[in-house]
Amino acid sequence: MARDTSLKKGELTDTYYYILLSLMEPKHGYLIMKAVERISKNTFSIGPASLYTSIKKLLEAELIELVEESAQKKIYIITEKGIQFLKNDIEKKREMVEAAEKIFNDRGML
């Protein structure tokens, strides 16, 4: 699924998901990349090009906002709309896991 359409449909890619989670507190790009690695326990990483493309899309969708800008860095934070997107995505993921667990349990596989 293309990232452009996922946000319009209210869906988050893994990249968007981790960026939004990392921005519960204000951060600049490098700290976002490091936070994503920490949050994902080093199972997911975002390179600079992907990060800044995603930031642009998240800004356009008003899921994050620029809170401070200097010559060296820009600092972003999640918006209320972004928090709601994240909550909805977490609930959707929870339902997906529950459905999968039920299928596995019904077959004695878990």
UniProtKB/TrEMBL annotation:
Gene name in the database record: yqjI
Domain of life: Bacteria
Listed name of the protein: Transcriptional regulator YqjI
Domain Transcription regulator PadR N-terminal intervals: 25-87
